[in-house]
Amino acid sequence: MQKFKEEIISNKTLSQDQLDSLNQQFEMAGPDEVLLWGYYTFGADMVLGTGFGSSGMFLIYRLWELGINVPIFYLDTHLLFNETYELRDRVEKRFDIQITRVSTDLSVEEQAEKYGDKLWERNPNRCCYLRKVLPLRKYLSDKKAWITGLRRSQSKTRENTQFVEWDPENEVFKINPLASWTGQKVWNYIHSKGLPYNPLHDNGYPSIGCIPCTQPVDDETDDQRAGRWNGSQKTECGIHLPTQ
Ligand code: SF4
Which of 69, 110, 190, 222 has the most CB atoms within 10 Å of its CB? Predict the structure, then answer.
C-alpha cells in the first residue's frame, strides 16, 4: 500500500520524501506560504473547497489579498441553511468572485423515492456519499490539488492533518494551510479584518453543515465539530476522512 502511494505521488511530481520535507518546512511558515507554494506548483489546477465556515472565510480572504485567482467551490447538498446561501452571496459580492456550485443531480425528493424518506436519519453515511462524496470526486477528477480548511485542533480524527497530503480517494493533493492553527486564532483574524461569517455561529452553532444534521450546542463546549450528527457516532461526512 505504501509503495502504491509513493508511486502515485511520484507520478504526480512529488515524492514522499519531498512531501515530508515540505511539511516540515511549513510547520515554521504561515498559511500564505502554503497557499503561494500551492499556486506556484499547481496554478489554476488548484481549487479551494469551502463550506463557508470560519476557515473558509479566512482562506477566501487570503487568496483574494494575495491575488491568487483559483476556482472556489462549495458542495451544495440542497439541504444547506438559508444563512449559508446568504453568506455565499455576500462573499461573492464583497470579493467580486463567482463561487462554483458542485452538487448531485439527485434531488432530495428523488433520493427519498429511491432510498426512503430522510435517509440521513437511517443511513447518514449513504446520504453523505450520494450528496457530497460522489459530486466532489467528479468535480476534482480533472484537478490537481484542492485547498481545505482542515485544522488539527478541530477533532481527534483530524489531529494528524499535514499541510500537504496525497488524497487517494480523489487522486489530488490536498493542501491544508491552516493545519496548525487553532479555531480561536482563525476567529481573531476574522474579527480583526471584519470578514463576513455565518450568523449561525453567533447562535450556538460552532460547525455548520446540512440542516437535518446540524444542531446548536451548549456554549460551554470546546469541541469545534460539536452539533454535527448529534446523537450518532458519526463525526465525518467522508470527503476528508473515512466516515466514523
Ligand atoms: Fe445527508 Fe446529513 Fe450528510 Fe447532509 S450531512 S449529506 S443531510 S447525512
Answer: 190
**Ligand 1 neighbourhood includes 80 CB (under 6 angstroms):** no
Residue range 55-107, pLDDT digits in tens:
999 999 999 999 999 999 999 999 999 999 999 999 999 999 999 999 999 99
C-alpha cell at 67: 491575488
Instruction: Report whether pLDDT(244) > 50.
Output: no
Best probe residue, ligand 1, of 74, 75, 76, 79 (max atoms within 8 Å of C-beta): 79
Residue nearest to atom 3 of ligand 1 (CA): 128
124 in ligand 1 pocket by Cβ < 6 Å?
A: yes
Query: Starting at the edge strand that comes first in sequence, how are the strands of the sheet with 164-167 ordered?
Result: 99-103, 72-76, 46-49, 145-147, 172-175, 164-167
CB atoms within 10 A of CB 98: 9
Domain segments of the chain as ranges: 14-213
Residue 206 to residue 216: CA distance in whole angstroms: 8
CB atoms within 10 A of CB 6: 15
237 given a catalytic annotation: yes
State the pTM of this model: 0.90
CB 193 within 8 A of CB 124: no
- CATH 3.40.50.620 is right for the domain spanning 14-213: yes
Compute, in angstroms, the gap from residue 223 CA to the centroid of ligand 1.
20
